[in-house]
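For practice. Any example?
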Amino acid sequence: MRAIASPDAVTRRIHALGSAGKEQVMDGAPRGRNTIGMRGIVLLAAALVGLALGLAGVWQLEGARDGITITPLQAGTTPISVYRRDGEAAAPVVVIAHGFAGSRQFMEAYALTLARAGYVAVSFDFEGHGRNPTPMSGDVTRVDGTTRKLMSEIGRVTDAALALPGTDGRVALLGHSMASDIIVRQALADPRIAATVAISMFSEAVTASAPRNLLIITGEWETALRHDALRNLRLADPSAGEGDTVGDPACGGRRAVVAPGVEHVSVLYSTTALREARDWLDRVFGRTSTVPAATTGHAIALLFAGIVLLAWPLAELLPTGAPPAPIPLRSLGIATLVPAVVTPLVLRFVNTRFLPVLVADYLAVHLFVYGALSLALLRLLGIRFGRVAWTAALALAVYGIAIFGGALDRYVASFMPIAARVPIIAAIAVGAVPAMLADGIANQGGHAALWRTLWIRTAFLASLGGAVALDLRRLFFLLIIIPVIVLFFIVFGLIGGCVGRRTGSPAAAGLGLGLILAWAIGVSFPMFLPG
């Protein structure tokens, strides 16, 4: 996109805005020299600050990789990334596993921290996740189903990791959330595993003495998991408490620690958690590390804050349009409450299993029914949809997918799809586009008051919550994704609002956001084939 790639164009446009306002008159008095000129200054400042934040984030994130060689490999169909400090002698291997709907990138702070400490860190994409082309399979509710298959995959990755040059034959496992149970069970089955680091752990397989050298890390705000971690610690010593170490890691120990001020996702960037994982493995393997942990969370925040802030001045390069007329409160209530109630009730009796993606097929249908019903009601209530600013819609989609998504893919989570996911994205777009069109029109393309925006999006989230409540067994995994959709509304809602307010085209903002949402769902949900 030329508009995105040319900071000079932003400056020229802002200057033009300031010049154009000099001749405007309001109530007989000159208007624009200060008002429009000040707006231009603010836009230029926003562009410079956004650019500075983004560059600072990239500089720090790339700096965390200094001295580390990252090598992509394959273990069968499983994509692997090997992190190794340049010039390091033979060292133990740490196999790193992500959680549900995650990918190798999610675990990079741990991979970089351990590689900087001299370990050979090997992360991978589970079947059905990230860039792994093999779908997950089996019964996700049974240990003998999907769990056993994922254990086998970790075994294959472990074999491949130990066969790498520069490894000393010793190996440990580290995993988050869903992977915590997988690595615990694999450590029980594989005598080669010298230590297990389970982050946000839930597992019924832990015993009083196994797996050996178990470290359990939990975020301070993960209340239920903290209780479970303490229970598993006290299997080894009933008097132990959080922060205590039971036994000697050199021959078989156990420890449960709490990372302060974090929850289920931010624990992956916690300095405390990163240090605890590294120090535990050092004690197990008789090593000493002095290099700081790779605390990349703040840099990621800087990068994405910059990208979101840059969207505002960049949107000023788009053609302008008049704002849409406000939607009467009664019409807004009908167009949001009716779909929120009707959609989960109707779909309770509809078979929505048609995509090889876990619960994303239901979400796509839910989006379509909700969006189509909301659009129909808005039309029947006399709401004008207005024109579609196609260039603006395309610009928004490209910015969200290529710029924001490209940064996300490199530093946070897999966002660039493999070939098998492209038709999945297209199918989800059939539902996501109507839903976001309805959202954009009801939200007046970002012109609506904040409380109206919150009402519109809360109604949609409530409809998803109602669907889960009506069919918890089938739609349980939607509970994990709902926070991601909240984040989507916050981040991309801000970007889409900049486009909608500039162009006066709610449909453009909705269309662009629909394409971004379809892409995000299509690349994030695990590919899954039952049986």
Q: What stands out?
A: The first strand starts at residue 25 and ends at 26.
